[in-house]
Amino acid sequence: MLAIYGGDRYITQAFKPSNPIGIEEINAVVNVMETGVLSKFLGSWSDDFYGGSKVLEFEAAIAKYFNVSHAIAVNSWTSGLIAAIGALDIGPGDEVIVSPWTMSASAIAILHWNAIPVFVDIDKRTYNIDPHKIEGKITPHTKAIVVPDIFGMSADVDAIMQIASKYGLKVISDTAQAPAALYKGKYAGTCAHVGGFSLNYHKHIHTGEGGVLVTNDSYLAERMRLIRNHAESVVVGRPSYGLNNMIGYNFRMGEIEAAIGIEQLKKLDSIVKKKQRLAAKLAAELGGLAGLELPYIPNDSTHVFYIFAMQLNRTDGPSKKILCEALLAEGIPISSTYQNIHLLPIFQKKIAYGKKNFPWSLRSNALQIDYRKGICPIADDLQDHKYMGIGLCNYDFEDVDIDMIVGAFRKVWTHFFK
Ligand SMILES: *Cc1c(COP(=O)(O)O)cnc(C)c1O
After folding, report:
1. pLDDT tens per residue across span 93-136
2. What's the pTM?
3. CB-defined site of ligand 1, < 6 Å
4. How close is the Cα of 164 to the center of ligand 1, in Å?
5. How far apart are the first and last CA of the chain?
């Protein structure tokens, strides 16, 4: 009998939580602690404006690994996204296109500059923004496109860059979930004007909290470094970067996080390889379950499996919700929903700054921008009827764990779809 109906749970052992931190990181932290220099940023014009030696070393290592000219370490990837939007000179009332199937920061970073997110639906198979639907949402106010590489695989960035160049737009890759994923032989995150990665503890590699921006554009890189470190107080020394959007922040990364990041980056390849091997095993063994759609990976891409996403593609059994409750009851750490951020109250009510609907009230036609359920039908359908996912970065799964997950899936499938 299914556990959901009072039967025995198929998986009785708890899975090991993910922990990529080892002796290398511990030693690196101790070394920094012994110097007593836990951060070396100075918010005024000096050699220390760009941070301490570990921050610089981490940035150089990131730039080398991802084969980009500039890496800029920040205290979170949310900060990174805010710095990127600001550096691109996006301002009050401008529109920025973004997909809804992402973490809220992809869109909230836009609001931080009083610009207005406009949502474009996703591709049903990749969960990434659908390039075919972008042009229909471009207006004279559109300035940029934020492109999440969701679940561990790049969006079709070349197609998006083509549209961007046609309309003079900038493109930001939000590659928080897809470090080391390949797209046409290049690393995801490096094919747009700016990209970057999260170093938060539930991502592939982490520094506790942290993030890093990557770009090949020196002008943008310098503007992002300025925004990271109290731009307004030092921009006088850098007149070529202007005053626009130079309200500075403190987005600085400390030396401890940078030292951890240096060691974590060395482990990225092996962490990703293991996720890919386990995901391939999971896909191979779940392949026989009728109506269960498995991750789609185009020939020109690799997937690093932040989340192993599936779709229920049959209607002759229970709803997705019931099915996921049954899978969960058997001990599979499965989630039956992801985030459809256009439905968040901030967009439904159009309230960000103050009580007067800023920034939408900056333009009367911005108040008309539609965030209702239904504007992104693919994302809605996935959320309501089809999508389910297992977070491969939450656990340190081994082969035996995958076997247990597969066994529990088979038990549930046998019960509902005889
Ligand atoms: C995690 C995540 C972020 C935010 O990163 P933080 O480092 O936690 O601020 C942004 N976008 C996506 C798609 C994410 O998954």
Report:
1. 999 999 999 999 999 999 999 999 999 999 999 999 999 999 99
2. 0.98
3. 76-78, 102-103, 105-106, 148, 174, 176-177, 198, 200, 211
4. 23
5. 14
